[in-house]
Structures are given as structure tokens and as C-alpha cells.
């Protein structure tokens, strides 16, 4: 398709392209043209005379026959709306458990058509339930499985979503916790799951030891596989109740990770027991918007006082929206 453009010698092409971007007149609807000696940069309008002063003398305004960009279709193009889903490995997980069968099938077909990396589409049949934090799923389309390998920050996590909880939405949070770890620290991950916090930290080679605890035997089995899969060192996978394991490692932890947001407050006595003087508890909770932090800080303070210790709140932050008027929060408290 014919477009007005700037013809410029290739050696001057990049500076001219930057000028066009600054002027916001580079036409991105078509591909930049080229031959052996020149580039042809498409324009949304002709530069004004004063704008031309910023260009090198070698340019020429001409018409050129450009090829259009082939726009890759997205689910919205096929559906007419934006579906809510998250991608874990090569599995797409629909977020609305109330979707009827027909609508879920339409969304699944659109996801498979527009995302070559998606092989399976699941719909949750239950919320996260039980002491092992698992959900039941229906395979809506694609390969009939719930197991996948998810890649994140150079790590690989094998997980069966029907047997162990995992979400990619905490990837930034996991990286942030890693940034707080110093060389030689001892980390206790009280509810490790398949290892997304523990393995990322262990692979950094900062800590002297990562103790990864979980009560779910399936989660621990995948955790052990993932330790091998990622060649992680200085990490121990422990199947057991965090309360009981805390008594074995009392006073050893520089960092205690409590990623069990619905019920972490029930384990605060154990977290305080684990923390060495100056150790930091990373406490996660689900709280209402009218009481984001204060009640949780009170829980942490009371647990510390029972052990004859005090706390210093280092940071409190909203991690993400969880539900209407409810938020996933993190409080970091030093135990002294």
C-alpha cells in the first residue's frame, strides 16, 4: 500500500527513525521498507518545515509501496470481550468458576487458536480448599492434564495444579523477597508448596541454607523434583507441619516466609520461635480494605510478646487485589 515516507541512506536510518518517534509521526501500521542502500520510513503525516530542520540533508520525501504488518489475533478479536485467565506453564486457567459450559468452551477455543504455547485450558470447579490448598478442575479444551512446567526468573517449576497450589501472580513478590536476602542468611519457608520462593532464593547462592516446609506430600514431591530440575543447592525439602518443624529449628532463621495468606496468623507463634534475634518475618494475609494492616500487625506483636520479644515493622504493602474490597498484603517485621 502506498504511503508517504522518508527515504534515507541506511547509515542515517536509526537517527531519523528516532526523530520520527519523538515527533510521533512514524506509521507503525506498515513495515519499514528497505533496499540495498536506503530505508523507507513510513509517515502518518508530512513533517512541518520547522520539523524538517532536525533531519539530516540526505533525506528525501517520496511515496513508497509498503507491506502491512500482519496483526496476530488475540482472544478479544475472536470473542468480542477480554476473557479473564492466567497462564501457568502451558496451561491456561480460567478465573471465573461461574462460567457456563458454552462460554467456557468459546473462551478455551479462542485461547488455543491465538496462543500456540497453550496446550490445555482448565476451569476451576472449587475455590482453594483444605489444609493442602488445592482446587478441583475441569479440562475445558486441549490435552487432558493438570500437570505442567512453569518458567519464572530462570527457574522451572513442575506442578500438578490439582495436587498443589501455584500462582504466577506472585512472581514479582518472590523476586522482591530475594532482594532482601543477604549472603549467609538462613531462610525458613514455612509453606513452601512446590518451591517458588525457596528455589529462587537457593539458586541465587546467597543463603547458607533454605529450609522448605510443607504438609502436602504431593507438593513436597514436586518440590524435591524441582530442586533437582533447577540444580538448587543448600536447600532441604521437609514434609511436615510447620508448627512441629519450628521446634527443631528454633532461633535459626534470618528470614521466615509465611505465604499462607488465609491462615498465616495461626502460625505466628511458630514463626517467632524460628526467627533469630534480628530475624525478619515476611507475613502474608488477606485483609479488608478498611483494615489492611493494623489487625495483622497486632497479631504479630502479640505473638512476639508471648515469647518475651518485640517487633519492628519494616514494611507493609499491598501485594495485589484478591477479591472485591479484599487485598493480599505483606507485612515485614523484624523480631528483636
Automatic annotation (TrEMBL):
GO terms for biological process: tRNA N1-guanine methylation. Pfam families: TRM5-TYW2_MTfase (PF02475), Trm5_N (PF18093), TYW2_N_2 (PF25133). Keywords: Cytoplasm, Methyltransferase, S-adenosyl-L-methionine, Transferase, tRNA processing. One of its GO terms (molecular function) is tRNA methyltransferase activity. Residues 85-336 form the SAM-dependent methyltransferase TRM5/TYW2-type domain. It comes from the Archaea. GO terms for cellular component: cytoplasm. This is tRNA (Guanine37-N1)-methyltransferase.
Amino acid at each position: 500500500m502506498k504511503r508517504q515516507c522518508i527515504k534515507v541512506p541506511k547509515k542515517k536510518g536509526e537517527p531519523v527513525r528516532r526523530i520520527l518517534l519523538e515527533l510521533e509521526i512514524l506509521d507503525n501500521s506498515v513495515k519499514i521498507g528497505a533496499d540495498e542502500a536506503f530505508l523507507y520510513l513510513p509517515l502518518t503525516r508530512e513533517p512541518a518545515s520547522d520539523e524538517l530542520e532536525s533531519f539530516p540533508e540526505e533525506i528525501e520525501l517520496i511515496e513508497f509501496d509498503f507491506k502491512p504488518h500482519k496483526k496476530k489475533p488475540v482472544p478479544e478479536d475472536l470473542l468480542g470481550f477480554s476473557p479473564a485467565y492466567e497462564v501457568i506453564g502451558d496451561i491456561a486457567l480460567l478465573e471465573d468458576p461461574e462460567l457456563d459450559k458454552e462460554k467456557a468452551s468459546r473462551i478455551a477455543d479462542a485461547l488455543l487458536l491465538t496462543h500456540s504455547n497453550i496446550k490445555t485450558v482448565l476451569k476451576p470447579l472449587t475455590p482453594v480448599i483444605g489444609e493442602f490448598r488445592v482446587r478441583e478442575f475441569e479440562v475445558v479444551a486441549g490435552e487432558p492434564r493438570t500437570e505442567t512446567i512453569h518458567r519464572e526468573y530462570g527457574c522451572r517449576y513442575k506442578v500438578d495444579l490439582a495436587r498443589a497450589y501455584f500462582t504466577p501472580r506472585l512472581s514479582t513478590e518472590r523476586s522482591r523477597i530475594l532482594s532482601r536476602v543477604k549472603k549467609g542468611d538462613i531462610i525458613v519457608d514455612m509453606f513452601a508448596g512446590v518451591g517458588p520462593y525457596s528455589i529462587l532464593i537457593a539458586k541465587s547462592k546467597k543463603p547458607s541454607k533454605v529450609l522448605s516446609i510443607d504438609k502436602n506430600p504431593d507438593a513436597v514431591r514436586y518440590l524435591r523434583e524441582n530442586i533437582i530440575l533447577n540444580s538448587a543447592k543448600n536447600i532441604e525439602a521437609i514434609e511436615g507441619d510447620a508448627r512441629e518443624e519450628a521446634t527443631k529449628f528454633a532461633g535459626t532463621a534470618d528470614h521466615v516466609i509465611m505465604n499462607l495468606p488465609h491462615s498465616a496468623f495461626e502460625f505466628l507463634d511458630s514463626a517467632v520461635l524460628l526467627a533469630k534475634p534480628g530475624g525478619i518475618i515476611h507475613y502474608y494475609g488477606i485483609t479488608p480494605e478498611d483494615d489492611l494492616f493494623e489487625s495483622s500487625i497486632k497479631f504479630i506483636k502479640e505473638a512476639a510478646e508471648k515469647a518475651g520479644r518485640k517487633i519492628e515493622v519494616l514494611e507493609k504493602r499491598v501485594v495485589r487485589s484478591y477479591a472485591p474490597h479484599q487485598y493480599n498484603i505483606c507485612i515485614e517485621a523484624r523480631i528483636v
